[in-house]
Amino acid sequence: MTKVLIATEKPFAPAAVAQMSEICNSAGYQVQLLEKYATKSELLQAVGDAHALIVRSDLVDREVLDAASNLKIVVRAGAGYDNVDTAYAREKGICVMNTPGQNSNAVAELAIGLAIYGIRDLFSGKMGGELRGRTLGLHGYGYVARNVHRIARAFGMNVMVYTRYSKAQAASQGIGVTKSLEELYAVSDVVSIHVPARGEHLQSVSMDVLKHLKEHAIIVNTARKEVVNEDELCEFMAARPDVKYLSDIAPDCIDRFKQDFEGRYYFTPKKLGAQTAEANLNAGVAAAEQIVEFFENGDRTFQVNK
Ligand code: 3PG
């Protein structure tokens, strides 16, 4: 019998697990749940006889893939699949998928929430500002950025974007597309980062672009910390005491922030962009459905390691 392991150190909402199990059970598959595991060995043991694996940000490295001799498919219920060794999975003939777009509204709402928190001076009681009339720069134009744009438009913000691959889509939405990343950072009051942690995006938020930021700019990062050159960010924060940085993931140099940038930063206690009941349900159900489609019809639409 096909066995589907749902392994989540940060569990899905119970309603999501119930629906995912129902989808798998209806296809005749057995579901095993491994939640809040504290050690990797628990995952290594559980994955041993699994044919399919559903994870969130859980690390699926060589060791995990080698421990899973029956494994045919890994679905990262979410967008970023930097936690999965996709190349090694491909070598082993294991299909890796994500569930693009399924949790994007949740992340977008958090980005806007962080922007509000930033422009209101972290609710310090000091005079803040308003988003209306200000320019939001979207660094990247994937599913999350498109949702941020939708919300920002309702706030009366002027939205600009820098994207290499989605220029036509952005222009069709009436968004101004900048010619360079430097230009985006130069025209924005709030920059919101929405690029994946791969390729040219790694460390793309560097001094070269940061130095163009306007006075009192706010940087919102609901992407990955790897897209930011953290040493250069610290250098920049030190040189520009008017700038704020709010992120859904604390940088490795968090101690420097605590020491030198008090009142100018905020980091969520744990990555929580997609931590909503709705996002869990959307991404979890999509993952279960993609697994059934894969086994029953050979559907590889969302494969990311072709
Ligand atoms: C994603 O890549 O989809 C988000 O970062 C959500 O990650 P999570 O499932 O670990 O919350």
UniProtKB/TrEMBL annotation:
One matching Pfam family: 2-Hacid_dh_C
Chain ranges of the D-isomer specific 2-hydroxyacid dehydrogenase catalytic domain: 21-305
InterPro entries: D-isomer_2_OHA_DH_cat_dom (IPR006139), D-isomer_DH_NAD-bd (IPR006140), NAD(P)-bd_dom_sf (IPR036291)
Record keywords: Oxidoreductase
Top-rank taxon, per record: Bacteria
TM annotation in the entry: none
One example GO MF annotation: oxidoreductase activity, acting on the CH-OH group of donors, NAD or NADP as acceptor
SUPFAM superfamilies: Formate/glycerate dehydrogenase catalytic domain-like, NAD(P)-binding Rossmann-fold domains
Domain D-isomer specific 2-hydroxyacid dehydrogenase NAD-binding stretches: 126-241
PANTHER family per the UniProt record, alphabetical: FORMATE DEHYDROGENASE 1, HYDROXYPYRUVATE REDUCTASE
Family per record: Belongs to the D-isomer specific 2-hydroxyacid dehydrogenase family.
Protein name: 3-phosphoglycerate dehydrogenase
